[in-house]
Write a structure and sequence with these properties.
globular, 13 strands, two-stranded antiparallel sheet, Beta-lactamase, alpha+beta, 11 helices
């Protein structure tokens, strides 16, 4: 990470790597960018002084995923927003997926509802907002993503190879195998294990993580999942490669992760029963 963000030689965390960012294996990066940081340069300065409170552990962090997006954009000779809009979205075949929603699609841009006041809201701006939680997409485009993730549809070989890499197991936690971004469980999966693994107490607090070496090849008999939330929205995506099933949940309210998992699990069980 330091190689990509420091002008001069420096150290960040316990020699934090890009794979650490992709697997949330940071040793305890905070969930959000600190309040006293107002831009990426300020965040880099903050990271230079940051010491991992629990080295070797895994916990979800918007700082982690945001920095990964920021560095990826730089590595492509651009920035995150342009790299997605010019390269990644077209490669997936997405036509109504944006960082900045254009006027032509504003009538499709849903409001979320504040979890405390129930007031209509959208996404708040902030440091690394585009990288951490800035993508807006339609249901049709998300179904296209599911298709490509499951090996269908039209996609460049480079994209398919990259997707395969994200399905490789990197770390083992108490409840799931941590891939790049994705979390995977053996299938058939125990619902209680999945709700515990997606519970806030587990994903937000540093947890022991055992390195898998070499990386675990992509598996068929697993369920891959990922939650995503802002104050007014709650998302969930799940892939079941062995059954060629993918599910995406787009809710304009921040329902608990456990509720999203239970609803999706019930839907999958119903589909498999027919």
């Amino acid at each position: 990470v330091a190689h990509h963000v420091c002008v001069d030689a420096c150290s960040i965390g316990d020699k934090l790597t890009l794979m650490d960012l992709a697997t949330h294996h940071s040793g305890g990066l905070p969930l959000q960018v600190p309040d006293n940081v107002s831009n990426v340069d300020g965040l880099v300065s903050w990271l230079k002084d940051w010491n991992p409170p629990q080295p070797g552990t895994r916990s979800y962090s918007n700082v982690s995923i945001g920095m990964l997006g920021y560095i990826s954009g730089k590595a492509m000779g651009s920035n995150y927003k342009q790299a997605l809009q010019d390269v990644l979205f077209p490669a997936f075949g997405l036509h109504h997926t944006w960082i900045d929603v254009p006027k032509s699609d504003m009538n499709r841009y849903a409001f979320g509802y504040d979890r405390k006041t129930n007031a209509p809201i959208r996404v708040s701006s902030g440091v690394l907002d585009s990288e951490a939680y800035g993508v807006k997409s339609s249901v049709r485009d998300m179904l296209t993503v599911l298709d490509v993730e499951l090996g269908h549809g039209k996609a460049p070989d480079e994209l398919r190879n990259a997707i395969e890499r994200t399905h490789e197991g990197q770390y083992k936690t108490a409840f799931f195998t941590q891939d790049m971004i994705w979390e995977q469980y053996p299938w058939p999966a125990d619902l209680q294990t999945m709700t515990s693994g997606n519970g806030y107490d587990f994903i937000m607090k540093p947890q022991p993580a055992e390195k898998i070496s070499p990386s675990l090849a992509p598996q068929k008999n697993v369920i891959l999942n990922k939650t995503g939330s802002t104050n007014g929205f709650g998302g969930y995506i799940a892939l079941l490669p062995s059954e060629d099933i993918g599910v995406v949940v787009l809710a304009n309210k921040n329902y608990p992760n456990e509720a999203r998992v239970r609803a999706t699990y019930s839907l999958i069980q119903a589909l498999l029963a027919n």
